[in-house]
Design brief:
Largest interface: A-B, 27 and 23 residues
CATH class of chain A: Alpha Beta
Structural class of chain A: alpha/beta
Shape of chain B: elongated
Radius of gyration of chain A: 18 Å
GO molecular function (chain A): ATP binding; ATP hydrolysis activity; transmembrane transporter activity
Order of helices and strands of chain A: EEEHEEHEHHHEHEHEE
Strand content of chain B: 15-25%
Strand content of chain A: 25-35%
Number of domains of chain B: 2
Keywords (chain A): ATP-binding, Nucleotide-binding, Transport
Protein name (chain A): Macrolide ABC transporter ATP-binding protein
Largest sheet of chain B: 6 strands, mixed, barrel
Number of helices of chain A: 7
Radius of gyration of chain B: 32 Å
Oligomer: heterodimer
Helix content of chain A: 25-40%
Order of helices and strands of chain B: HHEHHEEHEHEHEEEHEHEHHHHH
Number of domains of chain A: 1
CATH architecture of chain A: 3-Layer(aba) Sandwich
Helix content of chain B: 55-70%
Strand order of the largest sheet of chain B: 2-3-8-5-7-6
GO cellular component, one term (chain A): membrane protein complex
Family (chain A): Belongs to the ABC transporter superfamily.
Distance between the termini of chain B: 36 Å
């Protein structure tokens, strides 16, 4: 498998009114294409900051970040926006759908900013189909249940066929059953070859991944393969 | 595709405009209230331009009916400019210039390029016929008046030279005066009382309709000398009109008139001129300047409303940007560049002002039509016209207002950090 992400001695600090807050103290790891990795850590550990940097939402302070073997350590705002558009799909804990907007238009959103969007209708329909929501295509986002909302968010993350999907506490606002459905969809996507990075503070959720990178106090505490990962098959219910 | 705009595809541009329209539709009431200021501004701009054009047409029409081959000589307070406020104030304030005489007119009329002239002095008196009494403007002039003026006799005749010389008590009455004093009766040969003097009505003027200058229908025309001596007890006139043989020589003739007048009045210093000479072309120019000035002033007033409207839009756009911080963050997180966000909000501001502009244009035209109907019912020959320049001006003004006042909030939106924005509640 080829390398998708490689970070070397990545450090991040925030400066606010001369107060310097160091969040990441030098992190190095790599992720290959097709992996399903959970970045796990308690709140304040730096896992969200790491996701923001890897997802081109934020810039690193020092160190190197290679994406598909390209040095992406120092990108401009517009270049970062392009990477977010082509290469990354985000699934957030709070779903983050546009209110009073149809499922179709929500899923279409990333294509709006694509340089070569191609057949928009076809792509949006396929993405909605991939999360089993074809019957909800024309519903407004506020007419959906929590689980459906998160599936719309996954469809939106998929629509541009990105190299990498970030799921930031994707089951955090869901009950165990619908959370299980969401994890199943992510696992299915991974089986189809998508690289997925799951960011969570829960051990149980992290164990749905094949590999766990534990972060604590801005450093990697451990990085290991999950030997008995939780596999949800179609029709299974997640039991907490 | 214009490279200035950060839209790689038409799809992106259309979506941006669509998004802008959708967000305006989500807040219909607010959007409508926001455009009120713009609507008022544009309505007034359109109305002012349309009315200005109509007034100009009206005045030019009156002047053209009168003809352009004339020179007017009128009294002026020395050391002031004829068209100046000082001159107007000094005359309104009671400074009567008594130096312009009938004899001046006779001398000036000897100039080669002058074919005819009339002199004029005006007064006001109580006029009575049997039990009917009315206060009427009196217009004293000479027998050549009708050669130059556009007025026409309806019945009877105008007075002649002898009647002027002999201070005859004869009167030619305007159509309105006839209606008020005589009703349907024939006034010719009847005796009316002007002040304490008895006059015989020898003619009635044709109705002329409403006018921007004097209400000629409401006047009584008397021989100038009769009016001076018998009613006013004066020996001066206030202006005279000289008809030219060749209008191409108007400027030269005006110079000659000035020269002659200075000789007659023993004036060596032009600053001491107690008269002013105006050709019709100059009068037209003066009118043009006045109308333009008026229009400019009114458009400036309309512009204040546009600026107030613009500030309203800026305010609403700020609220909108704050309310939609999450949306901005989300759009950025899925790949929107700062430029996309900037233009989304700019388009919203421009669309809202353009809608205001279009409503304003419609209201302005409706108002202009109403004014035109009202003016016509009052007897004015008021031509309603759509000012294309006005519409272009209004449209570009509202677009510029949208751009200028939308820019700041849009920049604020574009500069947002996606992480902070998306976690904004």
């Amino acid at each position: 498998m080829t390398e998708l992400i490689k970070v070397q001695d990545l450090k991040k600090q925030y400066e606010n009114d001369e107060i310097v807050t160091k969040v990441l103290h030098g992190v190095s790891f790599s992720i290959k294409q097709g992996e399903f990795v959970a970045i796990m850590g308690p709140s304040g550990s730096g896992k969200s900051t790491l996701m923001h940097i890897l997802g081109f939402l934020d810039q690193l302070t020092t160190g190197k970040y290679f994406f598909k073997n390209n040095d992406t350590s120092n990108l401009s705002d517009d270049q970062m926006a392009e990477y977010r558009n082509f290469e990354i799909g985000f699934v957030f804990q709070a779903f983050n759908l546009l209110p009073r907007t149809s499922v179709f238009d929500n899923v279409k959103l990333p294509l709006t900013y694509a340089k070569n969007p191609g057949d928009i209708n076809d792509k949006v329909k396929k993405a909605i189909e991939a999360v089993d929501l074809t019957h909800r295509t024309n519903n407004l986002s506020n007419q959906l249940s929590g689980g459906e909302k998160q599936r719309v968010a996954i469809a939106r993350a998929l629509v541009n066929d990105p190299a990498l999907i970030f799921a930031d506490e994707p089951t955090g606002n869901l009950d165990s059953k619908t959370g299980g459905q969401v994890m199943r969809i992510l696992q299915n996507l991974n089986k189809q070859g998508k690289t997925i990075i799951l960011v969570t503070h829960e051990k149980y959720t992290a164990e749905h991944a094949r590999r766990i990178i534990k972060i604590r106090d801005g450093l990697i505490e451990s990085d290991f393969k999950v030997t008995n990962h939780i596999e949800i098959n179609d029709g299974d219910e997640l039991l907490k | 595709m214009i490279q200035l705009l950060p839209f790689a595809t038409n799809n992106m541009l259309i979506s941006t405009i669509k998004t802008a329209i959708q967000s305006l539709l989500h807040n219909k009431t607010r959007s409508l209230l926001t455009v009120v200021g713009i609507v008022i501004g544009i309505t007034s701009v359109i109305t002012v331009l349309s009315a200005g054009q109509a007034i100009k047409g009206l005045i030019i029409g009156e002047i053209e009916a009168f003809g352009s081959n004339y020179i007017q000589v009128e009294v002026k307070t020395p050391s002031t400019n004829q068209a100046s406020v000082e001159n107007a104030f000094s005359q309104v304030g009671g400074a009567t210039i008594t130096t312009l005489k009938e004899s001046d007119a006779e001398e000036v009329a000897k100039l080669q390029n002058i074919s005819a002239y009339y002199t004029a002095i005006m007064g006001q008196e109580i006029v009575g016929y049997q039990s009917e009494i009315e206060k009427v403007f009196l217009f004293g002039t000479n027998s050549d008046f009708l050669k130059i003026d556009t007025g026409e006799i309806d019945t009877g005749r105008f007075f002649d030279k002898e009647e002027n010389q002999s201070l005859a008590r004869v009167a030619v009455i305007g159509s309105k005066v006839k209606d008020n004093l005589f009703g349907d009766n024939d006034p010719i040969g009847k005796s009316i009382k002007i002040g304490k003097e008895k006059f015989t009505v020898i003619g009635v003027m044709k109705e002329r309709g409403a006018s921007f200058s004097l209400d000629m229908d409401g006047m009584i025309f008397l021989p100038v000398k009769t009016l001076q001596k018998r009613l006013l007890g004066i020996d001066y006139i206030s202006f005279m009109i000289m008809q030219l043989v060749d209008n191409n020589l108007a400027d030269q003739t005006a110079e000659d008139v000035i020269f002659t007048m200075r000789e007659l009045h023993n004036i060596t210093d032009p600053d001491r001129d107690d008269f002013a000479v105006t050709t019709m072309d100059q009068a037209m120019e003066m009118l043009d300047t006045i109308i333009l000035g008026m229009q400019f002033l009114l458009i400036m007033l309309g512009s204040i409303s546009l600026i107030v409207g613009g500030v309203g839009i800026m305010n609403i756009m700020y609220v909108s940007v704050t309310e939609r911080t999450f949306e901005i963050g989300l759009r950025k997180s899925v790949g929107a560049k700062s430029g996309n966000i900037l233009w989304q909000f700019l388009f919203e501001a421009i669309i809202i002002t353009l809608i205001g502009g279009i409503i304003g244009i419609i209201f302005g035209l409706l108002l202009s039509i109403l004014i035109s109907i009202g003016a016509k019912s009052q007897g004015f020959d008021w031509e309603f016209s759509i000012s294309i320049a006005g519409i272009i001006l209004a449209t570009s003004m509202s677009t510029i207002v949208g751009l200028v006042f939308g820019l700041y909030p849009a920049k604020k939106a574009a500069a947002m950090n996606p992480i902070q924005a998306i976690s904004h509640e």
